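Milestone M4 deliverable, item 7.
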Amino acid sequence: MWSLLALVVLAITVVVAMNWAPDQPVQKLQDRWATAPSRFVSVNGMQVHVRDEGWAQDPVPVLLIHGTSSSLHTWERWAKDLKADHRVISFDLPGFGLTGPAPDNDYSIAAYLRFVQNLMDTLGVKKAIIAGNSLGGEIAWRFAAEMPLRVEKLILLDASGYDFKPQSVPVGFQIARIPILAWPMDFLLPKSTMEDSVRDVYGNPDKVTPELIERYTAMTVRAGNRAALRKRLRQLQAGEQAALIKDVRVPTLILWGGKDKLIPPEYAERFHQDIAGSKLIMFDELGHVPQEENPVVTLAAVKIFIQ
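Output delivered:
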């Protein structure tokens, strides 16, 4: 009996040792993930990770908003190209990336709208072309519906907003929803869990590289982000304001991955129907993060739309 118990304890010890990944302070991650032109801007009591690039005098900058558990890095290829002709602003939302958790633990869409408004004010942006992916897409269209005078054009990439029914949910999101796993989740992060989660949002999982897994892992273990994700998911009310989508009156481009299993393509059609005059482009081979999976082809459509 004692031998069996010893083996169990040994097995648990080995598993914990192999998957040990406690929170990391933001200062430890900055050298690798906040290189120039990154800077930190004070907004709503947070030090927000921002990249503000390109034509500084641009009267209508391009504002890029990432999705759940992502970061401004998802837009790097877009920003590199767009900054030749535009001012391009990307940033880490509260609860994600290097910005980290919100002091008030409010991760409602209303709180994110106030945050984006205050960030724009801080950066001196009166009006912007706003693009958003997933959660960032919901923030973008809600902003356009409620503050249309501050939005020149809108670009939605696999946006949330309806009470959608996923075909598949990344395993990391599934774990974050289970209260009993909350404490272990703050200290353990199996490499396979992160890899499976990222592969799940790509149309072609073979495009997921070790470098990509390293980045998503670093953003996950930023101090406070795992707890913030749990709080965000508890505050999630899918489809609560879907009726407002019809209030969007700015020119809108909808880009969608035909292989998106998290928010399937049928919801792209609903956005297209509900937003008058919108244009929809479906990328049959891409998944939930088309701007990251194939920045070249997605950006080509965007440049035509905004220029």
